[in-house]
Amino acid sequence: MIIGLVAVALLVAAALTLTRFSAPASDAGRSYGSDTAFLDQFSVARYRPLLRLATRMDRAWLEQTHGKELASVYRKIQRSLLREYLKDLSRDVNRLYAILNARSAHARSDEGDISLALTEQQTTFALLIWGIEARLFVDVLMPRPLDIKPLVSALEALTAQTQAVARPQFSYHVC
To answer: Does the model's pTM come out above 0.85?
Structure first.
């Protein structure tokens, strides 16, 4: 019975998260304008603090030196910051996929099933983010370390792929 309730709660949380991450985000206050401007200004380094926020080292040190109460307040702040970073990351990932989808829609052919690969990548990103969100939700009761590295690595690969596809390729032939 309890396992069933937990499963339903996780499904509801996943549905809410899906709605949150798949809805078109307004870029109020952070509009890049064109795709080129977005790619020029976008940097994965903006999300490197996620790696530090996900560690438990600071909390363990605070717990040893100042007690559990301060450590739990600090962890609550960490969870809040992680959620904000995930929200921003989701917005940027959606923008990168919009650029890739627009390029693939304008391609002359879909050799290698590019659109299917993009859908699979986007699903993988959603699952990575949902997994982190679920861990943050459960972290209140059962603190566990978060592994953000796969998400950052996938973001680096997506950024490189988008920049390679979106930038015009010039080739010079010497006659």
So the answer is: no
